[in-house]
């Protein structure tokens, strides 16, 4: 319910911050899901569903593992380069 000042309230308690946090969490979840779907489309991540049809598990494919290892190696090289 909106009060006279246009704030969302429940029983007179301002809940605007909580609504904003929930909205941010939903947007973050959508962005994460979009990113994961892009990784699946690229073949870097696979999704396996459990028997209940609801639960699922995300795993790096062999290509995803190789990319992750390459990024790790590049990061180590960059850190050593900055340290010298």
Work out the radius of gyration: 22 Å
Q: Averaged pLDDT, please?
A: 82
Kindly report how far apart the N and C termini lie. 61 Å
Beta strands, count: 4
Strand % is 15-25%
**Helical percentage:** 55-70%
Q: Count structural domains.
A: 2
Which structural class should the secondary elements be placed in? alpha+beta
Order of helices and strands: EEHEEH
Low-confidence stretches: none
- Main beta sheet: 2 strands, antiparallel
Per DSSP, the total helix count is 2
Strand order of the largest sheet: 1-2
From the spread of the alpha carbons, the general shape counts as flat
Protein name: Transcriptional regulator
InterPro entries: WH-like_DNA-bd_sf (IPR036388), WH_DNA-bd_sf (IPR036390)
Organism: Halalkalicoccus jeotgali (strain DSM 18796 / CECT 7217 / JCM 14584 / KCTC 4019 / B3)
Structural overview:
By secondary structure, this protein is α+β, with helices and mostly antiparallel strands. It has 2 domains: 1-41; 45-84. 57% of the residues lie in helices and 17% in strands. It has helices at residues 16-41, 62-83, and strands at residues 9-10, 13-14, 45-49, 56-60. Strands 1-2 form a two-stranded antiparallel sheet. It is flat, with a radius of gyration of 22 Å.
């Amino acid at each position: 319910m909106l009060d006279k000042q246009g704030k969302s309230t429940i029983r007179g308690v301002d809940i605007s911050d909580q609504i904003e946090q929930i909205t941010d969490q939903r947007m973050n979840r959508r962005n994460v899901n979009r990113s994961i779907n892009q990784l699946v489309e690229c073949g870097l991540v696979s999704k396996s569903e459990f028997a209940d049809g609801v639960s699922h598990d995300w795993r790096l494919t062999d290509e995803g593992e190789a990319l992750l290892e390459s990024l790790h190696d590049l990061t180590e090289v960059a850190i050593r380069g900055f340290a010298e």
